[in-house]
Design a protein that fits this description.
By secondary structure, the protein is an alpha+beta fold. Helices cover 30% and strands 19% of the residues. It has two helices and six strands, in the order βαβββββα. Bound molecules: zinc ion (ZN). Zinc ion (ZN) is lined by residues 35, 37-38, 40, 61, 63, 66, 68.
């Protein structure tokens, strides 16, 4: 498979990130998200864009050597339950559920 990296303008890249985002939110390229693949935090700026034999553009995780793609990304490192971001996330979810129960 041919894999050729392409250079996009910031606006185009952000649009692509938003389009392919699954568990992640990208308001700007400065936003940071986490990759399950390399377990690192990376910014939208560091994401690589490439093209293969087809017409589509593909996204690849920022840290060198990682070929993580949008399905591997999340807004917090959920695989590490002791990470402060994960604990904050779990707490927010638990509180939202609590509130939901209170309404019933
Ligand atoms: Zn990665």
């Amino acid at each position: 498979m041919r894999k050729q990296f392409v250079q996009l303008t910031n606006a185009e890249k952000l649009r692509l990130l938003k389009k392919h985002a699954l568990g992640t939110v990208w308001k700007s390229l400065k936003d940071k998200n986490w990759c399950l693949h390399c377990q690192k935090q990376f910014s939208g700026h560091s994401v690589r864009v490439y093209q293969d034999d087809g017409p589509g553009l593909w996204l690849e995780c920022g840290p060198l050597g990682c070929d993580g793609s949008p399905v591997d990304w999340a807004d917090h490192p959920w695989w590490d339950e002791n990470h402060p971001l994960t604990q904050a996330h779990d707490k927010a979810v638990a509180e939202a559920e609590e509130e939901e129960r209170g309404k019933m």
